[in-house]
Amino acid sequence: MSRIDLTSADPEPLKFSERVTAPAGVGGEDVVSVGEVAVAGKVERTSQGFLVSGWVEAAVRLRCVRCLEEFSVDLYEAMEVALLPLATAPREEETQLGRADLDTRFYTEPVLDLAELAAEQIELALPMKPVCSPSCRGLCPRCGVNLNVELCGCPAEADSRWSALAGWRPSN
User: Fold this and answer.
1) Given the DSSP bridges, would you call strands 14-20 and 111-113 parallel, antiparallel or unpaired?
2) pLDDT at residue 172 is higher than 70
3) Contacts of 87 (CB under 8 A, 6+ apart)
């Protein structure tokens, strides 16, 4: 039941709790894999369309942007998404989005794909630059050694822009 017929939420809110598989490519190149995704909540009829509220939970394996090592993150994202008919979408070529517009989706058929919704929520919950730890030292830019594991033998490189200040000492 990874697809929900929204019209069945007409008289009473429709509750759902499913385990879905996220589509391939969720999150981009820093995401190594996404485990099974739990998505739960309810769909309610509103005056303009439908409101989906609930949460998404998943174990995600990411690649650190500093050291390129893989690490796991457990994501839990609360969601509240307005589903509106496509006919109500703005018609202008360029539209300035407000904060409320970011949680709005438009549909052509009154069907909600839970795997697609979960993938969208996971992408919103992922960090822009995943880092394995705040103290990650990354890779040496010259020899490529992981500085979290070992120190490299590369000489310290001085920034030549500061060479004019090398001999300066403050006077007392």
Assistant:
1) unpaired
2) no
3) none
Which of 29-33's residues contact partners 24+ apart within 8 Å by CB, and which partners? Answer: 29/63, 30/62, 30/63, 30/65, 30/126, 30/129, 30/130, 31/60, 31/61, 31/62, 31/63, 31/126, 32/61, 32/62, 32/63, 32/70, 33/60, 33/61
Residue 83 burial (C-beta neighbours within 10 Å; 0-12, 13-18, 19+): buried
Amino acid at the residue 143:
C
pLDDT digit string, tens, across residues 57-116: 999 999 999 999 999 999 999 999 999 888 877 777 666 666 665 688 888 888 999 999
Q: Are 6 and 81 in contact (CB under 8 A)?
A: no
What stretch of H or E contains 163?
none
**pTM for the whole structure:** 0.76
